[in-house]
Inverse folding.
């Protein structure tokens, strides 16, 4: 399977604990995006990388959130001191910008569903 | 900042009925427009996209959408739905000037009764 993969698919944690999610994009995709989707809402942008550089962070991304893409391939999203309001589906998407690619079609992974008790 | 509005939160219709989902966006510059679909238990998949050219775009599974620039709209249509079209549909917009991040509408849940 050459699509976007995310791990874990589900995570249940207690309030105050730290969690880390991983995203493996489609190989050769230079852009990687993180979104958050809560029940009944559309996904909301959190942050994105071009190669290893984090180019933008949403104001939704509080200081408790940090994302990395150290080698320009996979990415991790860490949430420290989780709160019940962090419960959501965390989606990762990747795309190819430049190199003749037309527009910006983003391919989504299956998401990680986080439940904070 | 761009925003996207989807007119209907829930739509219920019978098989063979026609479907039209409204989408309006707010952004003053050049945009790319998308419709994504999320079938029950599955991840977001692209239905169709508009970058430039013919404003009537055709996607997978018989879906099409029309970009009307003057109305800032990108409505999704399908002439005859099937039970398998039961899903949640999301309209989204990106703008190169805004990092090409997707801004989604709130989604429309479509239930097709057999």
């Amino acid at each position: 399977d050459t699509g976007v993969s995310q791990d874990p698919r589900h995570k249940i944690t207690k309030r105050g604990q730290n969690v880390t999610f991983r995203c493996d994009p489609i190989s050769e995709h230079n852009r990687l995006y993180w979104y958050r989707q809560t029940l009944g809402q559309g996904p909301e942008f959190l942050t994105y990388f071009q190669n290893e550089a984090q180019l933008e962070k949403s104001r939704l991304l509080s200081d408790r959130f940090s994302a990395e893409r150290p080698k320009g391939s996979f990415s991790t999203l860490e949430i420290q001191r989780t709160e019940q309001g962090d419960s959501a589906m965390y989606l990762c998407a990747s795309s190819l910008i430049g190199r003749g690619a037309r527009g910006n079609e983003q391919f989504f992974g299956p998401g990680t569903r986080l439940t904070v008790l | 900042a761009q925003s996207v509005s989807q007119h209907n939160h829930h739509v219920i219709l019978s098989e063979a009925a026609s479907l039209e989902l409204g989408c309006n966006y707010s952004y003053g510059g050049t945009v790319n427009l998308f419709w994504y679909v999320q079938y029950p238990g599955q991840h977001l998949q692209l239905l169709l996209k508009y970058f430039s050219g013919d404003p009537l775009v055709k996607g997978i599974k018989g879906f099409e959408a029309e970009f009307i620039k003057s109305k800032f709209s990108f409505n999704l249509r399908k002439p005859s739905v099937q039970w398998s079209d039961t899903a949640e549909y999301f309209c989204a917009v990106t703008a190169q000037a805004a990092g090409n991040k997707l801004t989604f509408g709130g989604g429309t849940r479509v239930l097709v009764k057999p």
Observations:
- DSSP finds no helices and eleven strands in chain A.
